[in-house]
């Protein structure tokens, strides 16, 4: 009996927390993500956290992702779920690269 009550309590807790967790990280459009990444690169250059070589490499990767998005939109007219997931994964990787490069203690 005690095991049943504990499992019901755990299930109800998870059910109550799940919607709050989903609202904590709002969905961002592709354009918002692109603007955010570009702004982070610009800020890193202005603050000196990114060297010239680092910023050139990050901007090159950023332009490559923009070209890939344009290709996806040309071929289907809009992004399907697979294409969106691919772009999200690539944007996540670029975001991690920006973070790493900004915090690697190399200064301009």
Verbal overview:
- With 108 residues, the protein is mostly helical.
- 81% of the residues lie in helices and 0% in strands.
- It contains four helices and no strands.
- Helix 3 packs antiparallel against helix 4.
- The termini are far apart.
- Rg over C-alpha atoms, rounded to the nearest angstrom: 20 Å
> What general form does the structure show?
globular
Largest sheet: none
Instruction: Point out poorly predicted stretches.
Output: 16-25
Helix content: over 70%
Mean of the pLDDT scores?
82
- The total strand number stands at 0
Overall structural class, as computed from helix and strand content, comes to: mainly alpha
SSE order in H/E notation?
Answer: HHHH
- Count of helical regions: 4
First-residue to last-residue Cα separation: 65 Å
The fraction of residues assigned to DSSP E strands is: under 5%
């Amino acid at each position: 009996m005690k095991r049943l009550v504990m499992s019901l309590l755990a299930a109800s807790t998870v059910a109550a927390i799940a919607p709050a967790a989903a609202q904590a990280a709002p969905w961002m459009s592709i354009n918002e993500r692109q603007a955010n990444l570009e702004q982070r690169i610009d800020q890193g250059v202005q603050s000196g956290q990114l060297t010239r070589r680092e910023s050139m490499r990050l901007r090159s990767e950023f332009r490559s992702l923009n070209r890939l998005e344009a290709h996806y939109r040309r071929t289907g007219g809009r992004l399907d779920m697979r294409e969106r997931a691919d772009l999200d994964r690539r944007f996540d990787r670029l975001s991690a690269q920006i973070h790493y490069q900004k915090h690697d203690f190399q200064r301009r």
